[in-house]
């Protein structure tokens, strides 16, 4: 007959049970948190502590510990208890000094490394090691050794233009098509002498030496709310070729449907001859993205797909081969293409 204090009863409500199951399912949860969640879930099922310990490969005292912690403190008891000991050696003032130093550009070098930043802090009288500096910066999500590029738009009509384009994406006009148009230029037909296929333990390899066979430009039109692409490969990308592409779009669209074209500010799109063509085709309405804001043009998303799937690892022995592969990709893409899920609604962006 077993003796001793009876185990504390654990009874979860629906919210607690779902939160614990989410921890167990998560691929990012810490291993210790997953173990604690599994213990509590089994306790909730009424499983004996010894059996839980055997199933999870832990000591029965571990099961009793977390059963008691959850019984006394609920979900808060899942976390480690606050430990006693001497106060932290790095004070709040020290942390401010670390942040202040890390956010000021060093001289004469252009960026801080963890080693250089630690040395500078030591010169300022703060005795601290590289590991502690790294941990504090990581906790604050500060990365002085990294640099991100950002192209700022100084267009005075930025808000008006972006609202116009986003409005077309979110609520298109009736009896009209919204089409994002742009050119992908400088597409090089490159070939390499040697390639080695992927094998176990080694990725595909490509010879760094390559041969150039010329460049092409792709005129592309994304039908925003249908998801398909209309494209034409050209040797050049002057206003003459752009007008030819506009004719191609015009031939593809019913005569009684208005066309709202979204373009960037490339001079080709504003050429005098293009304006004359538009005057002769009043169903075409041009909407220009703000300066340095071509990311508002959805066809740029498709260009990224084209770059990754066709261009980055492609072998093109001549320009004809490059053109053929691009057009075949467009045909394949259109078989399953769907509209992009546009989520940017015009809120202020932060750098």
UniProtKB/TrEMBL annotation:
Residues 180-322 form the Tc1-like transposase DDE domain. This is Integrase catalytic region. Gene3D superfamilies: Ribonuclease H-like superfamily/Ribonuclease H (3.30.420.10). It comes from mine drainage metagenome. SUPFAM superfamilies: Homeodomain-like (SSF46689). It holds the Pfam family DDE_3. GO terms for molecular function: nucleic acid binding.
């Amino acid at each position: 007959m077993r003796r001793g204090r009876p185990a504390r009863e654990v009874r979860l409500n629906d919210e607690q049970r779902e939160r614990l199951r989410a921890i167990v399912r998560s691929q990012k949860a810490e291993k210790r948190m997953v173990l604690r969640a599994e213990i509590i879930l089994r306790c909730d099922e009424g499983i004996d502590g010894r059996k839980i310990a055997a199933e999870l490969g832990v000591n029965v005292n571990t099961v009793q510990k977390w059963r008691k912690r959850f019984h006394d403190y609920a979900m808060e008891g899942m976390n480690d208890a606050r430990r006693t000991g001497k106060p932290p050696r790095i004070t709040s003032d020290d942390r401010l000094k670390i942040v202040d130093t890390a956010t000021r550009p060093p001289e004469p070098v252009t960026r801080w490394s963890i080693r250089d930043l630690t040395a500078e802090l030591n010169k300022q009288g703060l005795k601290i090691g590289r590991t502690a500096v790294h941990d504090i910066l990581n906790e604050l999500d500060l990365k002085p050794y990294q640099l991100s590029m950002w192209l700022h738009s100084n267009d005075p009509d930025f808000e008006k233009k972006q609202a116009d384009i986003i409005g077309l994406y979110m609520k298109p006009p009736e009896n009209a098509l919204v089409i994002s148009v742009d050119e992908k230029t400088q597409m090089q037909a490159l070939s390499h002498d040697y390639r080695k296929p992927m094998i176990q333990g080694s990725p595909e390899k490509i010879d760094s030496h390559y041969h150039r066979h010329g460049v092409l430009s792709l005129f592309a039109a994304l039908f925003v709310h249908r998801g398909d692409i209309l494209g034409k490969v050209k040797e050049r990308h002057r206003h003459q070729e752009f007008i030819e592409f506009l004719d191609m779009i015009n031939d593809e669209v019913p005569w009684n449907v208005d066309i709202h074209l979204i373009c960037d500010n490339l001079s080709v799109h504003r050429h005098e001859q293009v304006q004359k063509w538009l005057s002769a085709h009043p169903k075409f309405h041009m909407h220009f993205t703000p300066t340095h804001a071509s990311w508002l043009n959805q066809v740029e998303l498709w260009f990224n797909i084209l770059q990754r799937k066709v261009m980055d690892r492609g072998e093109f022995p001549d320009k004809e081969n490059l053109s053929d592969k691009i057009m075949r990709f467009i045909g394949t893409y259109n078989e399953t293409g769907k509209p992009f899920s546009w989520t940017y609604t015009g809120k202020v962006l932060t750098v």
